Amino acid sequence: MTSPLPWLSLQQLYFRRDERTILRDISLDFRETELILLTGQNGSGKTTLLRILSGLLKPQQARLVLEGRALSWRRSRPLLRRDICYLHQQPYLFDSSVEENIAYGLRRQRLPRKVIQDKVNQALQLISLQHLAGRNSRELSGGEKQRVAIARAWVLSPRLMLLDEPVASLDKRSRSRTYELMSELQQQGISVIYTSHEPQLGNLRLSRHIHLYQGELSHKPLAQPSTPDQPRESSRAGAGSG
Amino acid sequence: METLSAATYQAVYLLFTGDPALWTIIGISFSVSLRAIVYATPLALLTAFALAYLRFPGRRLLVSIFNTALSIPAVVVGLTLYILLSKAGPLGEWRLLFTQEAMIMGQFCLCFPLLVAMSHAALQSSDRRAWETALTLGASPLRAFLTLLHENRFGLVGAIVAGFGRIIAEVGSSMMLGGNILNYTRNIPTAIALETSKGSFAEGIALGLVLLVMALVLNILLGQMQGKGEVIQ
User: Do A152 and B137 touch (CB under 8 A)?
Assistant: First the structure.
């Protein structure tokens, strides 16, 4: 059930780079527990939009309303970083154990060691990688890295997670596990925006499908979630152009 | 040849019997060079980070200046600082000439460009996602910077070792700024130059051996560290 009032509103966002307008007059509202698919061609500005939302990029123009309060970009950036976690297309894991990676953000919050350990254990359980807790993260497969990165963000209890092409370059099994994890995040009350070249895949219950074309945002009708028996091609065909 | 082997034998004897004069020189050398590298490293890492990660006017010019500064001879650095620190110089009132502090200043100037250039190269080629990931996980810019250093520690430690290697063995600026004063500013390279000019090769060889062993140990440690990193990556 989505709450009627958005906790975050982004209005009239413009982003230019090297005289080229990447994002043009973007306005978006975010409510609790949403799963939003963001599609668009290469270079359409998907990643730029996610990076702006996570506070990594500063737009030339934007109006931000957080919890009903209009904030300047400078003031809103720490709040965005508190509430929003961004995961790169290929997530970066630090050169340390899986456990240490998951605990990284928790340590920044100066939580007691016991609390950190408990949360790390919960996160490992969520991604079913308890057996790899002590392994160096660089030794993991692509799918495992993706799950560790999601768990590392999940322990920080963000309100919104931004996943940039979370299933690109993953095999079928890893894709399916990532979708399960995204679904689990939604059930736990975390909103998720994920980008994809492809329309809706897996068994995800999407709240919205937004599409970027030449820097402009539009809303698309939602495609039906595919069932496990349905071949992927049929869901692709049913979703219209991406 | 006979002279060389006899001098080498005597050099080893001096080292292992703990000759006080010899070990004082070694102590001064390490004390001065370690202080110089400790002072230079944090500033050099911050400069390298700024050059690699921030965009500001003149950035490319600064990179070129630091790369050019790599080839400045130690004696030119010594001469410049000598003029600045001499009584008639603008910094003459500091009365630093022929002190360990002056030697540290000289060595700082020598290793700083090297540290910046090598650290910049390491950070420039590093994965930017490390910095961004740390920030998105709630790290402060300082903590994210420390994380970035940790992620690139192999290249950065290599830069520090190279910087230390440059200053511990340099003779030009130490001689000019320290004055080669016994038990105060006489370090390994200036002592080698002096002993050799007097014809007492044993002390020179002993001190040279110390430098060689130090270089070997540092390189073995660095090699082992980098080896471990490669296995992981």
Answer: yes
Residue A45's identity, in one-letter code, is G
Domain membership of residue B144 (yes or no) is no
Answer yes or no: is B102 within a domain.
yes
Q: How many domains does chain B have?
A: 1
Which residues does chain A have within 8 Å of residue B139's beta carbon, measured at their own beta carbons? 104-105, 108
Write down the pTM of the prediction. Answer: 0.87
Q: In this structure, is residue B14 part of a structural domain?
A: yes
Beta-bridged to residue A18, according to DSSP, are none
Considering only CB atoms, A88 lies closest to which of B129, B138, B233, namely B129
**B96 is in which domain, residue-wise?**
2-124+153-228
| Positions of E strands within chain A | 8-17, 20-30, 35-40, 61-66, 69-71, 84-87, 160-163, 191-196, 208-213, 216-220
pLDDT per residue rounded down to tens, chain A (242 residues): 445 689 999 999 999 998 899 999 999 999 988 999 999 988 899 999 999 999 999 999 999 999 889 988 888 888 888 899 999 999 999 999 999 999 999 999 999 999 999 999 999 999 999 999 999 999 999 999 999 999 999 999 999 999 999 988 788 888 888 888 998 998 899 999 999 876 656 678 889 999 999 899 999 888 765 544 444 433 333 333 33
Which chain B residue's Cα is nearest to A135? B232
Residues in chain A with CB shorter than 8 Å from the CB of B233 are 95, 138
User: Where does residue B42 rank: exposed (0-12), middle (13-18), buried (19+ CB within 10 A)?
Assistant: exposed
Please state the separation of Cα A208 from the chain's center in Å. 14
Q: Which of A81, A109, A139 sits opposite B136 (nearest CB)?
A: A81
Does the beta-carbon distance from B147 to A82 stay under 8 Å? Answer: no
**Does the distance separating the beta carbons of B139 and A108 come in below 8 Å?**
yes
Q: What ipTM was predicted for this assembly?
A: 0.86
CATH code of the domain covering residue B215: 1.10.3720.10
Q: Is residue B135 part of a domain?
A: no
Angle, helices B59-69 vs B20-53, to 10°: value is: 160
The length of chain A in residues reads: 242
